[in-house]
């Protein structure tokens, strides 16, 4: 509790008594205190009358007592109850990771269902980007999400990222249209090997020895899985390899071009989807074309019925959602944690697709997948 001494004038009936008490109990105040005068307090006589306890004389406070009280308070430890923010952060990241993995599994399942009856990966990829672009445009227009504040320099920096993202997305979809989902993701787990090789020979970046050693199980596991894959297809295999290379360049361009750009993960991926859609649409029309799409659509409807429309909508929406959550997660966690999460995501997709689509897997093939994924985990550890 703060204390202050009050200098009372002679008009107060208690001035002498208070002065005596002050001199006895606080002898050091008279030599140390520097008195500061506060403004006179005007009292309305018509409301308060002529009370002997009120005066028009100045009121004086001793600043030294305030300082002593502050020193006394500061000598005691502060007991401030701080909420456990670490628990809340862990719960938030757990929710992010659970959403990321589950949304990715759902996307891969519906994507494969669509491609099994509608083998047009270019249109399927276009619809995925179109759904995400539409969702974000509506969110910005209705103020559900805050629109990003970007300029022409932002779009120039984003262009090479969008080109690489478009190639990687289409190549992965082409791969899944030809081979099992599990096989595509086993090959895509070899992306760290491409990352190291491109960074080493094209960018001149050197890595510690453990990073290079971690590539051995990645390359060996992917090769073992490819050789023992029962439904091996060269187009599917090359699609996954091209996707790996494209996403490596996407990451490189993103790191170089987006420095200093303050855009949230959600809005960054939204802008990336919009620009990728503009790039992909004319190529999709040129490669496949509306005539093939119309014929394939009618055939798929005749085989599946109205559920086919739901499959297309689900794979398009869930593709955007899982990518959006992954970029939002990257905003909150370290690259190492993100890499580990990405590795676990591949495991969940591979296992769930094998179970749902009853994909035949030989023990040697499963061993190759396990070795490749283990190598990816060791890479994420050694890279940090």
UniProtKB/TrEMBL annotation:
Q: Which keywords describe this protein according to UniProt? A: Chloroplast, Membrane, Plastid, Transit peptide, Transmembrane, Transmembrane helix, Transport
- What Pfam families does UniProt report for this protein, alphabetically? TPT (PF03151)
State one molecular function term (GO).
phosphoglycerate transmembrane transporter activity
InterPro entries (alphabetical): EmrE-like, Sugar_P_trans_dom, Tpt_PEP_transl, TPT_transporter
**Sugar phosphate transporter domain sequence ranges:** 91-380
Subcellular location, record wording: Plastid, Chloroplast membrane
Span-the-membrane segments of this chain are 122-141, 234-253, 265-287, 307-323, 363-380
Name used for this protein in its record? Sugar phosphate transporter domain-containing protein
């Amino acid at each position: 509790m703060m204390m202050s001494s009050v200098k009372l004038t002679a008009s107060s009936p208690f001035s002498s008594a208070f002065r005596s008490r002050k001199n006895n109990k606080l002898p050091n105040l008279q030599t140390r205190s520097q008195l500061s005068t506060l403004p006179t307090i005007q009292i309305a006589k018509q409301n308060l009358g002529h009370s002997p306890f009120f005066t028009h004389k100045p009121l004086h406070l001793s600043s030294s007592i305030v300082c002593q009280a502050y020193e006394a308070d500061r000598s005691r430890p502060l007991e401030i109850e701080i909420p456990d923010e670490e628990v809340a952060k862990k719960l938030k990241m757990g929710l992010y990771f659970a959403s990321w993995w589950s949304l990715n599994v759902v996307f891969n399942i519906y994507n494969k269902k669509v491609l099994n009856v509608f083998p047009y990966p270019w249109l399927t990829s276009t619809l995925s980007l179109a759904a995400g672009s539409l969702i974000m445009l509506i969110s910005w227009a209705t103020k559900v999400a805050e629109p990003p504040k970007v300029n022409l320099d932002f779009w120039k920096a984003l262009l090479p990222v969008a080109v690489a993202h478009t190639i990687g997305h289409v190549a992965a979809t082409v791969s899944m249209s030809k081979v099992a989902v599990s096989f595509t993701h086993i090959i895509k787990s070899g992306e760290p090997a491409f990352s190291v090789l491109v960074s080493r020979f094209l960018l001149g970046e050197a890595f510690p020895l453990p990073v290079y050693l971690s590539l051995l199980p990645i390359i060996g596991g992917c090769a073992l899985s490819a050789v023992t894959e029962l439904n091996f297809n060269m187009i599917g295999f090359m699609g996954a390899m091209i996707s790996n290379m494209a996403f490596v360049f996407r990451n490189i361009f993103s790191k170089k071009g987006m420095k200093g750009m303050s855009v949230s993960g959600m809005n960054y991926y939204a802008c990336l989807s919009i620009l990728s859609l503009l790039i992909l649409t004319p190529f999709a029309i040129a490669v496949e074309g509306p005539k093939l799409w119309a014929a394939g659509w009618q055939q798929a409807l005749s085989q599946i019925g109205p559920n086919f429309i739901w499959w297309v909508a689900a794979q398009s929406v869930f593709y955007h959602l899982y990518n959006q959550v992954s970029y939002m997660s990257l905003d909150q966690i370290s690259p190492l944690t993100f890499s580990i999460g990405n590795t676990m995501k591949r495991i969940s997709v591979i296992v769930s697709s094998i179970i749902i689509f009853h994909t035949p897997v030989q023990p040697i093939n499963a061993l190759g997948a396990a070795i490749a994924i283990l190598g990816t985990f060791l890479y994420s550890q050694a890279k940090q």
